[in-house]
Specification:
Isopropylmalate Dehydrogenase, globular, alpha/beta, 10 strands
Length: about 325
């Protein structure tokens, strides 16, 4: 109920997901009258509406959302995962509030200090995973090491790579570059059993040099939003150039077709859905401004994590 385009974006995404996956069932948590008005009757046998008129706003303090809104659509959704009624929770609401509620209700996995937001980012050869993307503004070297271990497991299971390449995001590839926290994390990773390939710079994120890129949430959030803004700029400039040339270029229809392919291939909505890794349950954060197409892909992310049994495998890994 609390995303910028909700509830229609979430409802539309749920409808699309149900149509494309006969095994899927959904809980729709929010205002029953609004949901029922926009949800088709023919799909109701695989959906259950859980009513609440309490909503966490985008500008609400995470602490207030946690303490004062225990019946919010967000809190009830996370509760469903904790109670074992749902396999995953997907929300496009207030990021801080989702983080606070999920951590409070589900708790972190054994030996994990903090959960982190992790998502797929398009690259020249496919995609790479990056974490943290905003859950933790500052991190210790040990926490970055934990992020790397979690990223390694997800990449191994989802991408089917036996030994994913793990890198640390830094201001240079040389060992002398970066602050002490990055250097300490690098030492921990070098001494680990995972396939650590060293530092990676921001301009190499899309170059397929790593399957998992690890950073703190402050840096990661800025990096991912800068990339999304750059994609928007590129599409805008290319579209403007085609429009300017359309009257003179007889092949403009072909150029427009090429632009459409370009837009689809790097569309951030196709990689929407950040997994909050490190929790004892699956929680996926959809972009707050996401439309139904983007939110649909966040649901696909959640379904994939469930099918690959990421939580049981992560518990097994960290208990060892």
């Amino acid at each position: 109920m609390s995303g910028e385009r909700d509830p229609l974006a979430s409802i539309g995404a749920a409808i699309e997901a149900l149509k494309n996956d006969d095994a899927l069932k959904v809980f729709l948590v929010g205002d029953e009258s609004i949901i029922a008005e926009h949800f088709p009757e023919e799909l109701m046998h695989r959906a259950e509406i859980i009513h609440t008129d309490e909503v966490v706003s985008m500008d609400e303090s995470p602490v207030d959302a946690l303490r004062k809104k225990k019946n919010s659509s967000m809190r009830l959704s996370v509760n469903l995962v904790n109670e074992g009624k749902a396999d995953a929770c997907v929300s496009s609401g207030n990021t801080g509030a989702l983080m606070a509620n999920a951590k409070y209700v589900l708790k972190t996995l054994p030996t994990i200090d903090r959960p982190a937001f992790m998502k797929a980012i398009p690259t020249k050869g496919g995609y790479t995973y990056m974490l943290d993307l905003g859950a933790n503004s500052t991190c210790t070297a040990e926490q970055l090491y934990q992020f790397a271990l979690m990223g390694n497991l997800v990449a191994r299971e989802i991408k089917g790579i036996s030994s994913p390449k793990i890198a640390l995001l830094n201001i240079g590839e040389e060992e002398i570059k970066g602050h002490e926290m990055i250097k300490e994390a690098s030492i921990l990773l070098e001494e680990s059993s995972i396939n650590y390939v060293g530092y990676i710079e921001g301009n190499d994120i899309v170059e397929d040099k790593a399957d998992v890129i690890v950073t703190d949430g402050f840096t990661g959030n800025i990096a991912i939003k800068a990339m999304e803004g750059t994609i928007g700029l590129m599409v805008s400039v290319l579209k403007g150039s085609l429009n300017d040339a359309s009257d003179e270029d007889s092949g403009s229809n072909g150029s427009q077709f090429a632009l459409d392919i370009f837009k689809e291939s790097i569309d951030p909505r196709r990689h929407n859905g950040a997994l909050l890794v490190g929790l004892n349950g699956i929680v996926v954060k959809s972009h707050g401004s996401s439309d139904s197409y983007g939110h649909y892909h966040a649901i696909l992310t959640a379904v994939d994590e469930v099918k690959k049994e990421i939580i049981p495998k992560m518990i097994e890994t960290f208990e060892k």
